[in-house]
Design a protein that fits this description.
Layout (H helix, E strand, L loop, with lengths): L2 H14 L7 H12 L3 E8 L5 E7 L3 H9 L8 H5 L15 H5 L2 H7 L4 E11 L3 E10 L7 H24 L9 H5 L5 E5 L5 E4 L1 H9 L3 E4 L2 E4 L2 H14 L3 H5 L4 E5 L5 E8 L16 E7 L8 H9 L3 H12 L3 H8 L3 H15 L4 H10 L7
């Protein structure tokens, strides 16, 4: 297949995973193949870098996957940079730190080198109040480092992977638990609408009907789904028309359309095309071209404590990494051993941390981080 044919085939498959999460491993495998990588993983981590959850992976030794979650996520010198990444922008090792310095870290010596990994491209897919989601593709030494071609190919598929991930999370649908697609929609807490390309509503779930009745965010005008905000309404109408042309057309549009209610509350709408792939087999007999999911937006002010700390005190990624390690591990000697750097390096970062934060002791740093803890976390 040509690259265009390969991409079209991939895109049709990736949106089906929004309705069938069991297909994620196959999709991640196709991501790796498309960019020419031997291994890839879809994973999430909490905002304080305390834990990692691997949704699926291909080409990785399960023992190393587990050791990363248990131990090496705290030693990964690149992790804080990933948290600050621009959504959809692949980040390679050399983008964060000198490559030669990376090769000297304990993380590379104990986790990367035994697997013959030379590099990886990590792409942020989602950032919420409690976690971040990533797609990472690895490179063996024989593949070379992440280059412009790897980045280019990732940028072709990441918008579609991200849309499928976000919509799938909103739907949280197991098709086997519902007699029909529309039956399943009624059980979803988010407002859900099936629309034709003109915006005419052919089905709304219970939450969707409640939204239309309140008319705070959306309303029905002449049977069509209309956003109260004029700009948002024009954006939705454009997406509906585009959805009729299939996955490729919609996928390059922005993943989420922001909506503002009359009372000032903010919502977000995701659009899933229904014209391709297994989505055509949902049992629908109407002319719906898209499913629209509408829910309240997450609070932007609490989505990432580490990022808030770094911005507040103008910390570098290395300084932030040491700060979080001090909180989680303890003294300079223990942190140096855990991170695979010298004690002198840790103490240099500590001195800068004390100066920037106006603190004098480790206990003060712990209190500082605790003060930034997300109030929504359990």
């Amino acid at each position: 297949m040509t690259e265009e044919e390969e991409l079209c085939d991939f895109v049709e498959s990736v949106y089906d995973v929004a309705l069938d999460p069991s297909q994620w491993t196959r999709i991640v495998a196709r991501c790796a193949a498309f960019v020419g990588s031997p291994a890839a993983s879809l994973y999430s981590r909490d905002t304080l870098i305390k834990s990692v959850d691997v949704t699926c992976q291909v080409g990785l030794d399960p023992r190393f996957v587990q050791s990363y979650a248990d131990t090496y996520t705290k030693l990964d010198p690149l992790v804080t940079s990933y948290l600050f990444a621009k959504i959809g922008e692949p980040i390679a090792t050399a983008s964060v730190m000198p490559y030669g310095e990376f090769l000297e870290t304990r993380f590379y010596r104990e986790w990367g080198r035994p697997q013959d990994f030379a590099d990886a491209a990590n792409t942020l897919l989602e950032r919420t109040a409690t976690s971040t989601s990533f797609l990472i593709v690895f490179r063996h030494h024989c593949d070379g480092l992440v280059d412009s071609e790897v980045r280019r190919r990732l940028k072709l598929i990441v918008p579609h992977v991200r849309r499928a991930l976000l919509i799938g999370k909103s739907i949280e649908l197991k098709r086997a638990e519902a007699a029909t697609f529309t039956d399943a929609l009624d059980a979803i807490s988010a407002g859900m609408f099936l629309v034709e390309k003109s915006g005419r509503i052919v089905h709304a779930n219970l939450a969707g009907h409640a939204m239309l009745t309140e008319s705070q965010v959306l309303r029905a005008a002449g049977g069509r789904l209309v956003a109260n905000d004029r700009g948002a309404n024009e954006a939705l109408m454009e997406i509906f028309m585009t959805a009729a042309r299939g996955d490729m057309a919609v996928g390059v549009k922005r993943v989420a359309a922001p909506l503002v209610a009359r009372n000032g509350e903010r919502y977000v709408a995701h659009v899933l095309p229904l014209t391709s792939g297994a989505r055509r087999e949902t049992g629908m007999t109407h002319a719906a071209v898209a499913a629209v999911l509408v829910r309240k937006a997450a609070l932007k002010t609490t989505y990432a404590a580490p990022e808030a700390i770094a911005k507040a005190y103008r910390l570098t990624p290395s300084e932030l990494h040491v700060l979080l390690a001090i909180v989680d591990i303890g003294g300079a000697i223990e942190v140096a051993d855990a991170l695979g750097v010298t004690e002198a390096t840790v103490r240099t970062h500590l001195a800068r941390l004390y100066a920037k934060t106006g603190t004098r002791r480790h206990a003060d740093l712990v209190k500082l981080v605790a003060g930034f803890a997300n109030p929504l976390r359990e």
